[in-house]
Amino acid sequence: MATKASDLFIQCLEAEGCEYVFGVPGEENLDFLDSLSRSEKIKLILTRHEQGAGFMAATYGRHTGKTGVCLATLGPGATNFVTAAAYAYLGGMPILMVTGQKPIKKSKQGRFQILDVVDMMRPITKFTHQLASSDNIPSRVREAFRLAEEEKPGATHIEFPEDIADEHTDSVPLPRSHVRRPHADDKSIRTAAKKLEAAKSPVLVIGAGANRTMTSRMLLQFIEKTGIPFVTTQLGKGVIDETHPKFLGCAALSAGDFVHKAIESADLIVNIGHDVIEKPPFFMKQGGTEVIHVSVRSAEVDPVYFPQIEVVGDIANAIWQLKEDIVPSPAWNFDRMLAARAAEVAHTDSISDDARHPIYPPYLVRKIREAMPADGIICLDNGVYKIWFARNYTARKANTVLLDNALATMGAGLPSAMASAMVYPDRKVMAICGDGGFMMNSQEMETAVRLGLNITVLILNDNSYGMIRWKQANMGFKDWGLTYGNPDFVKYAEAYGATGHRVESAEALPALLKHCLDTPGVHLIDCPVDYSDNDQILNKDIKTLSAAL
Questions:
Q1: CA–CA separation, 4 vs 516, rounded Å?
Q2: How far apart are CA 430 and CA 171, in angstroms?
Q3: What per-residue string of b and e applies to 107-123 under the rule 16 or more CB within 10 Å gives b?
């Protein structure tokens, strides 16, 4: 017998290994929802806003490498996916968005709620398609998953109209193909190795692509054999344990930091998994330091990025080939780079014990690092605290510091932590949000409680959009237009059935963090934060100290 189209769609998702569908259904999705209710392999995660569903799906994709699937209805449901689509598209996270639509062959509702969602999604997805025939469901779903997961991963979209969902068809799901990333060319490996051997002070810069393709083991072997130091971008944090003696820091500030001083002392830069989406930790110029580009994709040339040598292929394999080929040079000298790192550590240590209240950011970062195990996951929303954590929080493992340095959207921290707790239920997970970013998707607290997740939500409370205030001060403008009032976050948490806490002193913070991380359930911590020294430290002190090296 022929299969109902919505049943076939679910069968195709099952064939792709889909575990969850995150979302908010609408009346145009009811066939899909009914078919999903009979699946024994896929669980519906009903959220309170489509944006939260999209962020959860993207984080699922970031952790697993598998496509996260999310669902919305037409019109306003689909438009609420736009930010999440951009988040996944720029951030390299595989997702498939499924949106409903009115019947396309005969509709009695005119243009009610109808937007051209396929065209709307086109600039921020790798693939977008309206299903006009149930016979094509298997090939379109397979193509969406293939493109979502292929480097660079990203967002895909399928519009599933109501009348197509109710059709019947003889089509069956297509099996996933077995695919391997191509290896880098031997000659490019030899060229890169020769260039490295001839350098005096090479440095590795580890970016987003290295985090996605899980190159930790091969990179560690390469660093151990050669002794070449490394820096990371914000999206490359944790690929190598940052307690490693050759770690030089994370590029969190745009310029003038100790890590930039270390890079400036290099005469050759090996850029591993570079993505032009991120603010670069260095700028190329004619006649400047040469760059070797190692990535699955060839370099996107930019006025400040035009590498001289490209090693294109699977990153882990390319690094292994380089490790096998290279002969470490006795002439290499990394003293200036390591001195810059030592100066950064000394500066961080000098400000991290300030036990004032409201809480001082360097103290906060240190105490959270002490409270979190090596495999614990922190999920940052977007705000000025992201700079403090990127610089000062030593990531021990890949994908344990989830921050967004691509779209850099607010509102993703809580949903990201929720998805992390679902993928890794036995690991400690903490969302770290500004009060502004938290309130943009705070309704997902209900979802977290309903799902029985174990997460801690730390709200850094300064009653303002602190990142923009910091920039406002840095640009010499008066402090204006960026402050607001907040609810009582403890009562707010309790209203959702979560447990609320408030930081009353710096001395009490470590015990409170431990209690929340060790106690099952959803915990919210209202943490007043003192950002008064942000401008002095981040814009003045660090630049003065690093310039003096």
A1: 47
A2: 44
A3: eeeeeebeeebbebbee
pLDDT at 112 over 90: no
CA–CA dist 142, 254 (Å, integer): 40
Q: For a pLDDT cut of 90, what percent of the chain falls above it? A: 89
The percent helix, strand, coil of the chain (3-state, each to 5) is 40, 20, 40
d(CA 227, CA 5): 57
Q: Residue 179's pLDDT is what?
A: 87
- What average pLDDT score do residues 107-133 get? 88
171 within 8 A of 8, measured Cβ to Cβ: yes
For residue 122, CA distances in Å to 93, 112, 127, 485 come to: 17, 22, 7, 38
The H helix count followed by the E strand count for the chain is: 24, 20
Cβ neighbors of 33 (< 8 A, separation 6 or more) are: 25, 44
Average pLDDT over residues 114-134: 95
pTM greater than the 0.90 cutoff = yes
Helix/strand/coil (H, E, C) string of 244-307?
Answer: CCCEEEECCCCCCCHHHHHHHCCCEEEEECCCCCCCCCCCCCCCCCEEEEEECCCCCCECCECC
Length of the chain: 549
pLDDT at 277: 85
- The reported pLDDT for the residue numbered 110 is 60
CA-to-CA distance for 179 and 181, rounded, in angstroms?
7
Backbone angles phi, psi at 501, to 5 degrees: -140, 155
* 401 backbone φψ class: left, alpha, beta (φ>0; ψ -120 to 50): beta
Q: Six-digit token pair at 40?
A: 């024994």
Give CA–CA dist 376/180, Å, rounded. 30
- Give pLDDT, residue 1: 81
pLDDT tier at 266, thresholds 50, 70, 90:
very high
Smallest Cα–Cα separation from 225: which of 310, 329, 313, 316?
Answer: 329
- Whether 106 shows a pLDDT value over 80: the answer reads no
Which of 25, 22, 83, 19 shows the shortest CA–CA distance to 57?
22
Q: Where do the DSSP E strands lie in 134-185? A: 155-161, 168-169
Residue 104, pLDDT > 90, answer no
Q: At 213, is the secondary structure helix, strand, or coil?
A: coil
Mapped onto helix, strand or coil, the DSSP state of residue 483 is strand
Residue 471: is its pLDDT beyond 90? no
